Amino acid sequence: MPPAVKRLPPAPSSFSLTLAVVSGPSLSLSGESAPHGGFVGLRNLTKNRVTVGRTKASVLHVRDPGVSEKHAIFQWTGATWTVTDVGSSNGTIVNGDDLVVGVPRTLKSGDHVQLGLESAVRITVGPVEEANDAEQNHANNVAENGTEGAGARDVDEESVTVEAFLEAEAVRLATAIRERATSHVATLRKQAQVAREQMQSNATVAVA
């Protein structure tokens, strides 16, 4: 008889995981709802293993065509929360880093998790009240400054910076290759000219 699988109890309230929808379609939790009195965009995970996908069979159902049917898993390990991409088509990104399929990534408050192409959530690890306070502060910051503040905006700016760097590097390399090729062609032409002159000289000597 195979040994019984040890089941971890749900995360204590002090380590509760709450997701705040940053972008993309709304997220539906099977059998669960937004925290009482909280923001509509908040989803509090009370299970210790939450599957994420486009189908209703997933605990966290994402109505986004860019999300795979079986996309990722949020998991309570007994000490921390992790997120793992389970082989999605468009990937899972945490703070701008693409996750390796099957390799868990430890989560902390403030982390930005992108699921597929459009859907993204902001993470809070702690009591639900902290998540409500964090989102209230975020909403106030947006209202006062007209910006998204930390989180998605930081990742976007970093991505733009990386893209600009890669584009500049590509231009630099292309220029260097073109210059080297031009120099190499000039050298070959010079060598060919010297060879022709040498052949003509040898032919003249032979005739004489």
UniProtKB/TrEMBL annotation:
Domain FHA: 50-99
PROSITE patterns membership: FHA_DOMAIN (PS50006)
Pfam (any one): FHA
SMART domains: FHA
SUPFAM superfamilies: SMAD/FHA domain
Gene3D superfamilies assigned: 2.60.200.20
Protein's UniProt name: FHA domain-containing protein
Phylogenetic placement of the source organism: Eukaryota, Viridiplantae, Chlorophyta, Pseudoscourfieldiophyceae, Pseudoscourfieldiales
